[in-house]
Design the sequence.
């Protein structure tokens, strides 16, 4: 009986083992079927992963490569010398940097160190009104000056047009206030209205510099107050003027502001009769005219311009001229010895080097003698308080960065600039 019991136990043990094996076979078979149905398969850990994106499918086309953006072309090109170009050689000229540019044809007629970096002082305001004109749709819109505005101007000892705290001034009045009396209050008002702050407005000015493709100019403020990182060149300033003339959207307003001899601002809550603004530029030119053929008659129209001065920059002058055929010329003189010398420098250069093709047949004598030798009026060489962008020290700064533009003249000069 015990023997049979042992056989029974062995039978049952063998049956249990067989059942376990059958169950395992069934599980493996079921798992295999699942893998086949779902399309899954085991991945060998030693097998390299596919190089392509695992989410890509063979039916999808590969995405085209993004095009490389083309380099943005500058709005203006640096000019070449005209075939009549002559090296600037007038011993009486005190300006250390100067250039005469044909704005219509983008040609240089003469120059001296015109690509050397210098301090522009209030010539800066030319760019200021350009940026303002381009970014203001309504010149009758107003800006209200604050006490903080006035305090900042007083702390900087900046020249002002005469606006006061609490006064609501039109953008048009601010444009004239910036150019005619060289008012830093006007430039501050423009900057705050257009950009919300002067710092943000200066960013717009430098963005315009980059857009134009100017390589020798950088601004740190909107008025021209001295800063070692606030600089330009004679040729860059000339090209800034050229750009404004070429821009049909702002050219008329730009010329109107630069050419005004006097302007009365709109009646305001603080100045019921407005403010009479007088042009420093035309005060300097009083009694002067351009006489290329020495017949004692004016043969060039003096359109207008902008003065500039700081102790560091010396005296600057941007003068816009026009011939009867409609051609515009700009003469930039920077770092002249005095306000009177700045004017004399400009007139002498233009009389000698401006082309005289339009005078052929009218005279046989077009020489270098300037009408300034017989001045009609006396020019005060003492800077007026209103013309001073800032009071400071040295007349030049060795820390000015080196020029980026290849020098196109053989003459050299100390770097400096004027307003």
Sequence:
């Amino acid at each position: 009986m015990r023997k049979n019991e042992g056989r029974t136990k062995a039978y049952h043990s063998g049956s249990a083992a067989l059942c376990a094996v059958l169950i395992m076979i069934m599980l493996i078979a079921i798992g295999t079927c699942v893998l086949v149905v779902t399309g899954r398969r085991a991945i060998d850990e030693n097998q390299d992963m596919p190089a392509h994106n695992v989410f890509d499918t063979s039916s999808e086309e590969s995405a085209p490569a993004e095009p490389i953006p083309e380099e943005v072309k500058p709005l203006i090109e640096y000019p070449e010398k005209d075939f009549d170009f002559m090296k600037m050689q007038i011993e009486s000229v005190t300006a250390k940097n100067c250039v005469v540019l044909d704005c219509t044809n983008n040609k240089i007629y003469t120059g001296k160190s015109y690509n050397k970096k210098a301090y522009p002082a209030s010539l800066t305001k030319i760019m200021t009104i350009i940026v303002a004109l381009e970014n203001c749709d309504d010149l009758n819109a107003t800006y209200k000056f604050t006490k903080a505005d006035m305090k900042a101007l007083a702390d900087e000892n900046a020249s002002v047009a005469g606006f006061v705290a609490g006064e609501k001034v039109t953008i048009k009045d601010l444009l004239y206030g910036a150019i005619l009396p060289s008012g830093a209050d006007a430039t501050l008002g423009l900057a705050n209205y257009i950009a919300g702050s002067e710092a943000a407005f200066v960013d717009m000015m430098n963005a315009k510099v980059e857009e134009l493709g100017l390589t020798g100019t950088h601004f740190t403020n909107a008025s021209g107050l001295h800063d070692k990182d606030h600089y330009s060149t004679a040729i860059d300033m000339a090209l800034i003027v050229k750009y404004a003339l070429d821009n049909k959207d702002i050219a008329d307003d730009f010329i109107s502001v630069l050419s005004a001899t006097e302007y009365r601002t709109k009646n305001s809550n603080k100045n019921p009769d407005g403010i009479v603004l007088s042009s420093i530029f035309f005060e300097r030119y009083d009694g002067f005219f351009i006489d290329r053929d020495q017949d004692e008659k004016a043969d060039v129209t003096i359109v207008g311009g902008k003065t500039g001065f700081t102790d560091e920059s010396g005296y600057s002058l941007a003068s816009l001229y026009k011939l009867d055929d409609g051609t515009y010329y700009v003469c930039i003189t920077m770092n002249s010895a005095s306000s009177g010398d700045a004017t004399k420098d400009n007139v002498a250069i233009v009389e000698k080097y401006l082309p005289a093709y339009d005078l052929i047949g009218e005279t046989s004598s077009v020489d270098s003698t300037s009408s300034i030798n017989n001045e009609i009026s006396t020019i005060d060489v003492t800077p007026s308080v209103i013309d001073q962008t800032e009071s400071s020290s040295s007349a030049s700064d060795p820390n000015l960065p080196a020029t980026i533009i290849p020098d196109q003249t053989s003459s050299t000069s100390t770097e400096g600039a004027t307003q």
In short: The first helix runs from residue 2 to 38. DSSP finds ten helices and ten strands in the chain. The first strand starts at residue 80 and ends at 81. The chain has one domain: 80-387.
